[in-house]
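User: Sequence for CUB domain-containing protein below. C-alpha cells please.
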Amino acid sequence: STEWVSEEELRCMRAVGYISGSRPVVITADLSVNTLTQAFTSDLILLVNISQSNAPTVGSLNVSLYADTFGIAGSLAARVGLSSTLLTNWVSTTALKVKVSAGVVSNLGIAVTSEKLVSTSALTFTYDVLKLLSLQAGGTDSALWAQELDSARLYTGGNDLTIVGTGFGTADLTPSVQVGNRTCLDVQWIADTSLVCKTAAASWSTQPCADGSCVSNQAVTVELLQQVSNEPCVEDLGWKDRINNSCSDYTVNAKAMSNKYDCGWNRTITASTGIVTDGDGNYSNNIVCQWYIFPSEAISLMGIVFDEFATEATYDRVRIYSCQDSSCSSNNLEGELFGTWSNKSFSCTSCVGLHVIFETDFSIVSSGFSARFYTSNSPSWAVDLPYSFWQVWCGTNYANQYPSTDGRTAREMCCSCRGENYVYECPSGYQQVGYYQDAPDSVCEDINNCGIDHNCSLYQYYDIVSEQYTSLGGECVNTDGGFTCVCTGSTCDSVAVKPSQTLDQALLDSVQSNAKIQLLRGNYSSPCNLTLSKSLTLAGASDGSTYIECSSATVFIRVTSSTLIIKDVSIMGSSDTVGCVNQQDSSAVYTPEGSTNILLCNSSLVSM
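Assistant: C-alpha cells for CUB domain-containing protein:
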C-alpha cells in the first residue's frame, strides 16, 4: 500500500518479491509519472541455518538452507565452495532445498545468489574426511624382497598396494599415500573408494623376524588437498550394538579372525582361537604341513572343527593328535580324514594342545580344508555358535546388520572396525599373522616352504600297507627364508604311479636309468608289448596286491642290454608266452623279487 504523509513525503510498504539489486522508484499521480533511478536496493540474503553440514565426497545429498528471506520463487542459485549445487528448489520465503554436488575438503563456504546479489553467512559445509577400510598388497607375502650381497636386505618396492576406503574424491585430485614414513612412488586414483599405489623401498634388519626387527605394522595414510586420513581413533566404550556386543567384543573377534594359519606356518600356535587351513585355492602335491597348537593359557577343553574338507581319497590325509605334554611325544590319534567331509569335529579334555598333520602325495589335488580351533578360554561365539558366526564382524554385512538403537554401526564406533589400514611387509620366505588394526602381535614368521609349494622333484606316495608316506624323490628341507632339495644317488629320478594311470611306453621312456617306478596297490592296465633299453626297478605294494593286466595276448616287456628288476608285481594270466619278459640279448637281465609271478618268455619261473 501507499500512504500520503505530506507534500514532501510518501510512505510505501513493499510487497514480497524477488531478491535483486538496485531498482528504480516510480511515482504516478493521475497522468503524471516521475522516476528516481537506483533508488531502492534489496537487503542481502542472510543464511541462518542448514539442515546438515556434512556429506560423503560423492555428494548427491539433499540439504535444506534457511535464511531471513529468499523472497518469492525466482532466479536463485546455491553453491558449496566453488561448486554449484546439482539442484536448487525454492520451498518458501525462508527455505531452499539444494542437492550437494561431489566434493572434498572441509569448512567450505555456502552461498546463495539472486541475480547479482550474494548472500552473507558464517555457515560452512564439510565433506567427510578420508577413511581407509582395507588393504590388499601385491607380491609374495605382501611385498617382494631381494637378498643383497652385503647381507643387508632391501625391499625392492614397486608393488601394487590397493587401498579401499571412502572420500578419495570423484575425480583424480592427485592424492598422496605413505606407508610408514615412505611416500609411494606413484598413486593411481581409481574411484572415490579405491586407490592403487606403488610402494617405495624399505629396509629391514638381518636379525630373525621373530625378534620383531622386520618392517611391519606400518600405518598407511592418504593425504588429499591437505586432508589426512587416519585421525587418532577414539571409540565409545559404552556403545553396544543391537544384540549387546560392545566394541571390546568386536576387537576380540577381529583378533581371533586374524589368527589364520596356512600351510606355510612354521611355528607353535599359542592363540586360543583361530583357523588352520591349507591355504587359498587348491593345495599342492608332495607337501607336509604341520600345526602345533599349544595355547599359552591353561585350558580344560580344546577342540577343532573341519567345516570344509575335500582331499584326494585315500592318498591325501589329515591326522589329528591330542598332546599330553608340550613336546607332544605323548599323544593320541584322535582322527584321520581324507576324501570329502563337512562339520567334522574332534576334541579333548585332558590335553595341553593339538598336533595337526596334512600330507599329500605326488598327484591329484583338491580344494583342501578350513578348520577352526577353540579352547575353554575362547569367546562363547567361538565354542557354542555354528560356523556362520565365524565371520569378520567388522565386515559391512555383519556390522550393518546389528547397529545400535540409534543407528550407529560398529564400523563407525569401534577402532578395530574403522579400517584395517595397516600393511605388514614381510620378506620373501616369511609370512605374517595378525592383520587387524593395531595388532600388537603382527609379526613375520619363517615360512614352511616344504609345506607350500616347491620345485623339488618329489614323488611322495601313501603306502596303504604300512600306512606311511614315503618319498621316492629325496627330501625337501626348510632353510631360513627358503628351502633346499636333498637327494641321494638316483632317488630323485624315481617316480610313483597310481592305478588310474596307464603303464605304457611313454612312462618307461620318461624315467632315468636306474630309477624306480613305484606301483601302488591296485590293478593297472597296460598295452604291454613294451621295450626297455635302460636299467630300472618296477616295484609294487609289499603285500603283493599290485596287478597288471595286458590289454592283448602279448609279451609284457622286451629287455635289451639292460637290467629289469620286478618286485611284488603280478600279471593276470601270465604264462611263458603271454605277459612274460623277453630277454632280447645275452646282456639283458631280468630279476623277479618278492611275490612277482611274471615269467621269462618260453621259460619257467626264474627263481630268486
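Helices lie at 247-258, 380-384, 396-401, 410-413, 505-510.
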